[in-house]
Write a structure and sequence with these properties.
103 residues; mainly alpha; 2 domains
Length: 103
């Protein structure tokens, strides 16, 4: 459609992205400006099972941001015992990526 239209589209999307980031910052760090009432939640102490579930849910987001695991499908025929090796490689890659982000 042309350079001018794509430039406008990119500018609009960038403005939307900046506004979403700004508003999420405000809602996160200044909740008293936007909250209508205070709700007290009673949260029990988490168990190890809760930590494992939370870690698994966090890995879903990590796996979507890390695109390298998607390319392992291309190596399926070349790998010995692919049913065992490919999932292991995917999880090791995701854990490696996750540990690298924590530093």
């Amino acid at each position: 459609m042309g350079l001018k239209m794509s430039s406008r589209t990119q500018n609009v999307l960038m403005i939307i992205k900046i506004e979403v980031g700004r508003s999420s910052y405000q809602f996160t760090f200044f909740p008293s400006n936007y909250a209508s009432q205070t709700i007290k939640a009673i949260v029990p102490d988490p168990s190890w099972n809760d930590y494992i579930k939370s870690f698994g849910i966090a890995l879903i987001a990590v796996s979507f941001t890390y695109g390298g695991y998607q390319q392992t499908i291309n190596f399926g025929e070349e790998v010995e015992n692919p049913r065992k090796t490919i999932p292991r490689g995917i999880f090791i890659g995701i854990l490696n990526h996750y540990c690298a982000l924590s530093y």
